[in-house]
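[09:14] KT: can someone run the structure on this one? pasting the chain below
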Amino acid sequence: MTMKPVAAIGSLAIVASVHAACYYYYYHLNKSKSEEKTKSNDTDEDNNAKIGITLPTWAIEYEKSLKDINFTTDEERMKVAIELSARNVQNNTGGPFGCAIFESKGTECKLFSIGINRVVPLNNSTLHGEMVAIQFAQQKLQSFSMMCCKSADTKYLMYSSCEPCAMCLGGTLWSGVSELVCAATKADAEAIGFNEGPVFEASYQQLMASGVVVKRNVLRKEGAAVLEAYGRSGVIYNSS
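[09:31] RB: done, structure tokens below
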């Protein structure tokens, strides 16, 4: 039977419509799968890129126990940093360095964040006590600098159980703290084998020129004692 021209055109139109519908369906199906795969890959990459900074349970509990105390002197505040360094060694959760940042508001000065050396446990050479305390403080403030929250009434004071190494001194400069107070010295740390890097008196002068008040040798004997004890059996983790 011979198909009439009009019928033939109609059949061709139907076939074309079916092909178009199939193409549309499979195109969007594949596109959707491709997007899901890409999204899945992005998620995997994001997870692989995450770096965690954690504190051991004892440190978290110690910080909580001090949250309501008003610290009135440099010595009281420094004792917190030194206690952190000592407990870090005792609990085998890092090196012999501790740091505490306090928020000073008018007549009140309370603990704001803490840091302990976590280099070896977390396989991260940047996790010195000062750097950890700075990062937790900035996370708490939701700001890359504590300078943004400073005022005539509010200041952030950093107490370190030992003078900062080259990295931490630079981090202190950019952190936005108002004061840096240290116990043990660079010489005390280097005496047990640590390499503190290129730290000079000019480094502290630059810090002070930027507006940071610097106090050194506050409870130095107590801070150095923690280093000396660690030096007898602890791991000295330099870059080489």
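[09:33] KT: thanks! The helical segments are 5-49, 57-65, 74-90, 129-141, 166-175, 186-191, 201-209, 220-231.
[09:34] RB: yep, looked fine to me
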